[in-house]
Structures are given as C-alpha cells and as structure tokens.
Amino acid sequence: RRCSLCHTSDLRRGDTASLPGFENLTMGYNKYLRPYFGGEPVQIAMSLDIASISSISESDMDYTATIYLRQRWTDPRLVFHGNKSFTLDARLVELLWVPDTYIVESKRSFLHDVTVGNRLIRLFSNGTILYALRITTTVACNMDLSKYPMDTQTCRLQLESWGYDESDVIFTWLRGNDSVHGIEKLRLSQYTVERYYTLVSKSQQETGSYPRLILQFELRRNVLYFILETYVPSTLLVMLSWVSFWITLDSVPARTCIGVTTVLSMTTLMIGSRSSLSKTNCFIKAIDVYLGICFSFIFGALVEYAVAHYSSSQKCAAKAPQEGPSKELTKEIEEVNITDILNSSIASYKRKISFTSIEISSDNVNCSGLTMRTHEKIKCVLRNKMHRIIGYFTIQNPSNVDHYSKVLFPLFFMLVNVFYWAYYLYF
Predict the structure, then answer these.
(1) Residue 209 CB neighbour total at 10 angstroms
(2) Considering the chain, what is the average pLDDT of its residues?
(3) Per the UniProt record, which residue ranges are transmembrane (predicted)?
(4) Long-range CB contacts (within 8 A, 24+) of 8-11
(5) Residues 202-241: tens digit of each pLDDT
(6) FRET pair for 391, CA 20 to 30 Å: which of 62, 252, 266, 366?
(7) Where are the alpha helices (DSSP H) in 153-229?
(8) Rounded distance between C-alpha atoms, residue 73 and residue 353, angstroms
(9) Contact call for residues 65 and 127 (beta carbons, < 8 A)
(10) Which runs of E-coded beta strand occur in 167-312?
C-alpha cells in the first residue's frame, strides 16, 4: 500500500494542473471503513443493463445472463475542488471502499477480464463514485412446467448486501423501472419477454435485515416451434389411424399394419419429447397430456379393429354349424304325418284329465321335488337374464362398428381438443 501511495503521490505531482485538488485525495483514507462510518447509512443507487440472456434451461431450472451492473454512492472523504469528473484506472478499486453486493441464488458467476478486468471507476468532485462491472451469471429460476409448452415463467435477478445490514447501507434503484435497460430488446429463441418491473425488498436473516433489490421479468414461451415439432405430427398420426376404418374387415394385414405402425410412431414421438426434458419428468406437462390423448386414440383404433374382426369371425362360425341341422330338421318335418300329431295331442289331453282327478293330500306332496324344481326355475331365470345382458353387448352386425367409428372417433377427438386448448390457454 505504501508503494501504491508513493506512485499515486508521484502522479499527483506531475498532473496537478489537470487534476485540481487531487494532491490530498487519499491521505488519511481507510478503505476498510465505509463512508459515514458510525453515522448514517450509505445510499447506494443501482442501475442495470441486460446485455444478453444466452440460455434458459428447464432441466436445470436456471438462466444465464450477461449484465452491466452500475453502483453509485457518495464518499465525503473523496471530495475535491472543481466541477469535473475523472475516469480512473480500474486497478485503483483496490484502494477504495466498494459495496459488498452479491447476486442472490447465483450458481456460477464471473467477471470478464479481457483484455483487462471489465470494471469502471469514475469519480465526481462532490465525492460521488460510479462503479460499473460486466458480469456473466447463472441464476436459479423456479419454474412451473405443468403448462409446458404454453407456460409463462417468472424469473428474478436479486442484488443484496452480503455483510452490511440496513443500518450501514441502503439499496435503491436509480430511476425505478427506468433503471433497467436492454431487456425489452432481447431476442430469445423460445421466449418472449412480456413485462418486467423492479422491487425494493428486505432479506430477514439470523444476522440481521439486509437490503435487497429485485428485477422481476416474465417470459412467455413461443409455442409455434412445439406445434410444428410435436402437436402437428401427433395429430396427423391420429388421423392416419382412422384410415383403417375405410378398409374392409377381411384385409387383416393392411389394417394391422396401419394400427401397429401408428402405435410405434406415436411411442417414438413421446420418447423424443420427454428426452429433451429428462430431469423434469416429475412434472405432468401439457404436452404429455396431449401425447397421451393421441396415443389413446391410436390405440383405440387398433382395439376397434380387433373387436370388429373378432365379432365377424364369431358370427361366421355361428352360421356354419347351423346349415347341417337345418337340413335334417326339414327332412324330419316332412316325415311327420298328421296321425302322429293327433295321437300326441290326445295323450296330453288324457294326462291333464287324470291329473285333475287325483286328490291332493299332504302325504302325496314331495317337498324335495318342489325344492329342486324351485332351484331349477331360479337357475333358468338367472340364465335367461344373463343371456339378455350378454345380448345387449353382443355385436349383431360387425360392419356397423367401422361405420360408427368413422363418425365417433373424429368427433370425440375434436371435442377433446377444444377442452384441451381452452383449458391450457385460458385457465
């Protein structure tokens, strides 16, 4: 420090005319003590320029930005005569007191040093110091991806004092929202900056209450890329699965090939969409819901053909054995003569008369026979009801399955799309 002061004193002797009042500038100056030490807090006004936001990562939930941070404060120990301002060598920062500002929730940060450290020190005659830095930082941003890719994310850039609490320093924005520049000119690949605003807050910790400045900005994702990349292909695959409804049931290879191909293509599309966000699979995203809907419709078209083909084969199998017995029945009917019909009717009539003449008593009643007949009646009733219930679900005409599917599948898919886009875009 003694050598640096000697070098500074030599500089002052040579440039006294160009730096009026600078000869006693650093005498008695202690950089380890803040301005107004032991008295009122130091007012530090800040402004920001957002040079770029290079990346926004959903998997790591952070963003990387390059910013120009400018801090202004007044140090009465550096007042000199005149009304000029001087830009000093950035290495003189080591001789001055500067605020201990840090970026909250920063994962990685570095100060640019090509060709020298990108810092600026400007000193005004009233003791005001302008200290500017060029910083690239990666800051955490908590994201809610439940509506991905139709989501809007809110990220923050927070500046806070590390060691000085509110009794020592006070942070303020230099011009409110106008203290931030460059963010409205950003052009991002997947996002659009909708709005931003500045806040002044406090951070209450165990060691005290620290001043904090917050820049909050909202990023709306551009959904057009995902519509062309995922939504349109998945919709076309669903429509391709409907082609099988116009193919006859007998064309087993054609319909099976369409169904299996669309199912495998949809599976590949789902895996590809999730691989880009491998670390966020815990979220059920909007794109996952849509791909699940499309996969259900494609799989449903394949199941529809399986049901229709099975019903058609069952109907053909039921018709085949009925042809032989029907011929035998016609032959038997032809051999039956009128005499046999008359004899059978007379015999049944005699049995009825003999049954009415029998005297019924308690000794003649067989209870076991009655119970057996009751069980048989109950079984018969249940069997009839089961046959009726099964008959309701039995497809009488398998060709009608394709006929109804041609209308119901597209109609229901359009209805689901209306509810899907209305929910994720407006709710």
Answers:
(1) 12
(2) 82
(3) 223-247, 253-271, 283-303, 407-426
(4) 8/95
(5) 999 999 999 999 999 999 999 999 999 999 999 999 999 9
(6) 252
(7) 224-226
(8) 125
(9) no
(10) 169-173, 180-181, 191-205, 208-221
What span, in angstroms and rounded, lies between the C-alpha atoms of 266 and 299?
10
Are the CB atoms for 85 and 124 separated by under 8 Å?
Answer: yes
Any residues with CB less than 8 A from the CB of 416 and at least 6 apart, and which?
293
With CA atoms as reference, report the closest residue to 5 among 27, 38, 32, 33: 27
Asked if the model's pLDDT at residue 349 lies above 60, the reply is: no
User: What is the Cα Rg of the chain in Å?
Assistant: 44
Query: From CA 60, how far away is CA 52, in angstroms rounded?
Result: 19
Residue type, 237: L
The answer to whether 305 touches 85, Cβ cutoff 8 Å, is: no
Q: Tell me, what amino acid is at 421?
A: W
Burial class (CB in 10 A: 0-12, 13-18, 19+), 418: exposed
Q: What is the pTM of this model?
A: 0.73
Nearest-angstrom CA–CA distance, 314 and 99: 86
Residue type, 214: I
Distance between alpha carbon 31 and the CA centroid of its chain, in Å? 50
Residue showing tokens 């293509």: 265
Cβ burial 172-197 (10 Å sphere, 16+ → b, else e): ebbeeeebbeebeebebeebebeebe
The neighbouring-strand residues paired with 87 are 122
% pLDDT > 70, the chain: 77
Tokens for 339, please give them: 């005499």
Mean pLDDT is lowest, of 93-102, 167-176, 328-337, 387-396, for 328-337
- Give the long-range contacts of residues 415-423, CB within 8 A, separation 24 or more: 416/293, 420/289, 420/290, 420/293
104: number of Cβ within 10 Å: 17
Q: Return the CATH number of 225-317+407-426, one of 3.30.450.20, 1.20.58.390, 1.10.3720.10, 3.40.50.80.
A: 1.20.58.390
Quote the tokens at residue 138.
């990666």
Helix or strand holding residue 392 (H, E)? helix 367-393
Give dist(CA 296, CA 286) in Å, integer: 15
Task: For residues 195 and 155, give the distance between their C-alpha atoms in angstroms, rounded to a whole number.
Answer: 11
Residue length of the chain: 427
Q: Where are the domains of the chain?
A: 24-146+168-189, 225-317+407-426
Q: Which fold has domain 24-146+168-189?
A: Acetylcholine Binding Protein; Chain: A, (2.70.170)
